[in-house]
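Read as amino acids, tokens; as here:

___
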Amino acid sequence: MKIYDVKDFPNPRRVRIFLAEKGVADITYQQVNFADHEHRQPDYLEKNPYGGIPVLELDDGTCISESVAICRYFEEQSGGPKLMGTNPEEKALIEMWSRRIEDTILNRALAFFHHATDGLGSLEIYQNKDWGIKSKELLIDGLKNLDEQLAHKQFAVGETFTLADITAVCSIDLMTWLGIDIPTEFVNITRWYDFISSRPSLAA
């Protein structure tokens, strides 16, 4: 199996952390040269017509894109801890919070990056600075909701580290890389982040 990857991007990182937590090591990672538009070349578009990264290519040539879909494949196929829940309620809550965090923190940080900064430079097709700035403002609402969720919890959902935590840490790290600090009033996020930062998988 092979994963088409870009080392510094948050969505591929979500998959790498997930696999590190599961103990999946027999994967080849192939870096995609984003700057040279490799993700827009015909060979790559055959694997993912949307041009997104990451893509998991199975041994039979089947290609699976979208980070959570790739994680779902390994959740069902591999051993290790269950990172997407063990019963219907857990599974629903983990997916709910992972999607909330993705929508309200990760995607808003990405919108700020793509629209209110130089972003990917010449690779940017369209930029709307006002929307980028607004997205940064809206991101604070997402952080507030996550902070409230973490008020009495070590992890984002339940008693163990899950996909929701992975989505959150990748979102927070992207945000801080963009120069957006965790507001000091969100003490629960800071406590949670300090608590999980020692996990070896975060270096994946």
